[in-house]
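Quick question, first post here. What does this chain look like in 3D?
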Amino acid sequence: MELNNTEAGQWQVAEKIYEGKAKQIYTTNDPDLVIIRYKDDATAYNGIKRAQIENKGILNNKISSIVYQKLEQAGVKTHFVQQLNDREQLCRRKNVIPLEFIARNIAAGSMARRLGLDEGHVLSVPIYEICYKNDRLGDPVINESHAVALGLSTFLELTEAMEMLRLINEILINLFANLGITLVDFKVEFGRLDDGSLILADELSPDTCRLWDSETLERLDKDRFRRDLGRVGEAYEEILKRLS
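> Answer (accepted):
Ran it through. Tokens below.
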């Protein structure tokens, strides 16, 4: 990979160390920093459904960069350092905890089906869940005891992660509400730095958040791809437009 922005010149790409469904990660000449490149690939249902959506990676990179800067300003420690160009971010290198932390404000998706709730039902309190990141097992919902027994985390670390998740949820609810968008739910990942401190990792974008227009309830997120609703790129562009 060659960076297409002169601002990135001081960070030389060494090697690709990871490629997932939506991103690639490269080491740099600084051992504490990596470059994350956003792809246009779209997947759903643990990779069963796949497609390419033009410029999705560019849109998610820009959206996530803005959101992470807002979170940093609000006191949340994240892996984000700076946006390098249309597709790449410079981020802190970390060891990602193989768990997904989910905040749900409105019943939707798998939780609505699992609990027999009508989609769109406003929850009296947010629900916070943990999933074991394992495609082979379908990313099952687990609790703190499972996570500790499997050697994935500690009770102390999980307490800190859940506190951060609640704070992130409060910040994002207000951020999106001011843009006429309802934050239905979202998922995040956390990582450990070499000193053991916990930081927010991965991304926050329409790929990882359910975002509905507050007036029309139009879906402006990945559900447009999951459910064949069309206009996926346009929905992501609308989120970026409002954030910008």
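The first helix runs from residue 56 to 73.
The chain is about 30% helix and 35% strand.
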